[in-house]
Amino acid sequence: MFVKNKYYWFNSVISPEDSQKIIDTGLFELNNKKKQGVSTEAHTYGNEEKGSKPNSTPKNQKSNQQLLKEGIDIKNTYIRDSEVVWLKDQWIYDLILPFVFEANQKAGWNFQLDKTESFQFTVYNSPGGFYGWHTDGDGDIHAAYKRFIYGITDNKHAPKNGRNVNRYIKDDELIGKVRKISLTLNLNKPGEYEGGNLMFDYGTHSDNEQFVECTENRPQGSLIIFPSFMPHCVTPVTKGTRYSLVLWVLGDPFK
Length: 255
Description:
Elements: E1 8-10, H1 16-35, E2 57-58, H2 64-69, E3 77-78, E4 80-81, E5 83-87, H3 90-106, E6 115-116, E7 119-125, E8 130-134, E9 146-147, E10 168-169, E11 178-186, E12 193-195, E13 198-201, E14 211-214, E15 223-227, E16 232-234, E17 237-251
Parallel strand pairs: 2-3, 9-10
Antiparallel strand pairs: 1-15, 4-8, 5-7, 6-17, 7-17, 8-16, 11-15, 11-17, 12-17, 13-14, 13-16
């Protein structure tokens, strides 16, 4: 799908106090999960995270074609190295959602939206925490969430630790919905980390540069909002720890 505006941003609209409050809330939940023996490793649909391939090579922001040229076996790589925990605090929704709807209108997308997922509080530790090239959702009927029914759906699709597997979920409100808009909030103060840059891939047929580094989200409390089908990545963090908050806003599949 072609969109004129690839992303929309709001500079430093979340206060330092609220940014720190979100960090504190996320770290509290993260530590609770660890005390309970629950894994906080970020997962992917294809199980391409670091924990599933401990002796493999990180993809970083390299494409499969680049890796092949370097003689690296793609099957022996992983796409993600970070920790996550899920937040459902209503005050965070009240704080963030107005910016999503404003961006949807002002960017000219005007997507039909009616549902949200939980917030993902993400921690990228140095050295090397990253998330390689991916999309958050394709937007068509094939990307819609499906109902997991115990005793009927194959157990290999059973949700694990609150995470969906192959888009099978137990949340009735999200059945049939697709991710349409993604949001990333930078929670860090300036200079607290290096690297960890958000990048977009505009495609080989883009009139401008194909790979674009997004710098608008570097100031604390800044929001980047973009269609969920846009390929993007987070480059490796080389110093410090990067804290971010991610949200997906959903609606009916594109027609």
